[in-house]
Amino acid sequence: MKTHSLLAGGMILLATCAAAQSKIVISAEGGSPDDRGSARVLYWNDTANTAAGEFAFNYGRPVWKKIYEAPAKFDAMTKGHVWRMGSNFWTELQTELPLEIAGKSVPVGAYFLGLHRSADGAEWSLAFIDPAKVLENRGDAFEIQKAPIEFEAPMTVAKADGIADKLTITLSYPKQDPKSVTLLVHWGNLALTAPIKVTLAD
User: Fold this and answer.
1) Which of 22, 98, 123, 196 is deepest in the core (most CB within 10 A)?
2) What's the N-to-C CA distance of the chain in angstroms?
3) Is 184 in a helix, a strand, or coil?
4) CB atoms within 10 A of CB 82
């Protein structure tokens, strides 16, 4: 009887230890305002005095560090990788209008974004991720390498106009043709551009 009691007690102790070892520990960070930017283009129907649609890139603004200017360091960070293209919460594109970015069709909707560099370092592209798939798995942008890429749009390396101390995304367009937009991603001495064609309803 005593042997059975000892065995039962030992099994309970082992089960308790196993449960303690498998217990998931969760920590938290954030909660304070962070530096976040937004580049938006709004189209206005002057005749009807109402909005005709808009799109926006929303992103965190990481600080450029001097160490990134060393080619070996920057290549190690970017070659063959998808960079989160921002900080903290996901960089995202929200569009109410059909877009064509560097010849790639981008339907109306919401997208998480990254920046992909080829393994040889010669090519860059904007990587589009389905937010629903990320949210389903509770993924953070820090884990962007795990996120499935839906499609990519090529970007062109441009001459940087100085050093951007923080990531800066801008959208520019000629006054006579506001549906032809140029996307510029500028961080440190890296500058990438892509043309955006906007489709407006008649």
Assistant:
1) 196
2) 88
3) strand
4) 20
Non-local (6+) Cβ contacts of 33 within 8 A are none
3-class DSSP assignment, residue 9: helix
Residues 199 and 98 sit within 8 Å (Cβ to Cβ): yes
pLDDT in tens, the chain (202 residues): 444 554 455 555 555 555 556 788 987 877 777 789 999 999 999 999 999 999 999 999 999 998 988 888 888 889 999 998 998 989 999 999 999 999 999 999 999 999 999 999 999 999 999 999 998 888 888 888 889 999 999 999 998 888 999 999 999 999 999 999 999 999 999 999 999 999 998 6
Q: Which helix (H) or strand (E) holds 100?
A: strand 99-101
Q: Whole-angstrom Cα distance, residue 24 to residue 123?
A: 41
Helix (H, G, I), strand (E, B) or coil at 159: coil
3-state secondary structure (DSSP) of residue 119: coil
Cβ atoms of residues 196 and 43 within 8 Å? no
What dihedral do alpha carbons 112, 126, 78, 139 form, nearest 10°? 10
Q: Which of 172, 175, 178, 180 is nearest to 197 (CA)?
A: 180
Rounded to 5°, angle at Cα 134 from 128 and 140 = 100
